[in-house]
Amino acid sequence: MNPAPSLIVALDYDDPAAARRLVDTLPVGRCRLKVGKTLFTRAGPALIEEWTRAGWEVFLDLKFHDIPNTVAGACRAAADLGVWMVNVHALGGPAMLAAARAALDARSGPAPLLTAVTVLTSHDQATLDAIGLRGTPADAVARLTGLATAAGLDGVVCSGEEAAAVRDQAGAGFRRVTPGVRPADAARGDQRRVLTPAGAIQAGATDLVVGRPITEAADPAQAVETLVSEIQLTAAAMDAG
Ligand SMILES: O=c1ccn([C@@H]2O[C@H](COP(=O)(O)O)[C@@H](O)[C@H]2O)c(=O)[nH]1
């Protein structure tokens, strides 16, 4: 039996107190927490340390993309915060990915999982054409997944639309962290490559990242519960064949 995919709650709150209010209502371990640029820039490392000390698994989603030496230092700093996962941008290239990997491997203590963003889920074919990225989103995800596997990363961030191809390319043990997840009745917002939670799981996502459908819900804690139940039911149905 495969482990059910995890729910990672994207805490993109402007107000750290609002993020705390939601997290305080959740049982530790029911889901994972994602801190991205909005909340990190507001609240800094202290909030992350507060949650990691309380036992939460935190995905620090800062998508490091810089020269190799700088990204290596940023990954070391993330590891010192005790996060569960940290990510870089695969567009940073092979040397940057290798430097991130080496920085985490050089640690004596535990290191976070290291994943690479491939093609943002807000990007579609028109975006790739505009920025001059060759081929379709699926082509670009495959190329960037190749860079991530060559550098020994633990997985990639991709949309559900590419999750099955990434699994076939990189193997079942390579994580497919999937944002752009929308319950059928939820607004797509700025996301372009979108699947429902069940669709993303059936496509092979290992971790579902969900933000606004939770943070903008009338009852965010209930929205988390509903999503966790849907994830578990979908995974169980798939295991039953
Ligand atoms: O390709 C990517 C990479 C990261 N994200 C992040 O995931 C969440 C999604 O939030 P929603 O509100 O559910 O759209 C957000 O924090 C993004 O920064 C992504 O969407 N796509």
Write the layout of secondary structure elements.
Elements: E1 6-10, H1 16-25, E2 32-35, H2 37-43, H3 45-53, E3 58-64, H4 68-80, E4 85-89, H5 94-105, E5 113-117, H6 125-131, H7 137-150, E6 155-157, H8 160-170, E7 175-178, H9 197-203, E8 207-210, H10 212-215, H11 220-239
Parallel strand pairs: 1-2, 1-8, 2-3, 3-4, 4-5, 5-6, 6-7, 7-8
Helix pairs in contact: 4-5, 7-8, 8-9, 9-11
This protein binds the ligand O=c1ccn([C@@H]2O[C@H](COP(=O)(O)O)[C@@H](O)[C@H]2O)c(=O)[nH]1.
The site of ligand LLZGTKA7 has 16 residues, from β8.
Relevant terms:
alpha/beta, TIM Barrel, eight-stranded parallel barrel, 11 helices, globular, binds ligand LLZGTKA7
Count of domain modules:
1
The helix/strand series, from N terminus to C terminus, equals EHEHHEHEHEHHEHEHEHH
Tally of individual helices = 11
pLDDT < 50 stretches: none
Query: How many β-strand runs?
Result: 8
Question: Major sheet, described briefly?
Answer: 8 strands, parallel, barrel
Radius of gyration: 17 Å
> What would the CATH topology be?
TIM Barrel
Mean pLDDT: 97
CATH architecture: Alpha-Beta Barrel
Percent of residues in β-strands: 15-25%
Outline:
globular
- CATH homologous superfamily title: Aldolase class I
Q: Strand order of the main beta sheet, please?
A: 1-2-3-4-5-6-7-8
Distance between the amino and carboxyl termini = 11 Å
- State the share of residues found in helices, binned by percent: 40-55%
Bound molecules: the ligand O=c1ccn([C@@H]2O[C@H](COP(=O)(O)O)[C@@H](O)[C@H]2O)c(=O)[nH]1
* Protein structure class: alpha/beta
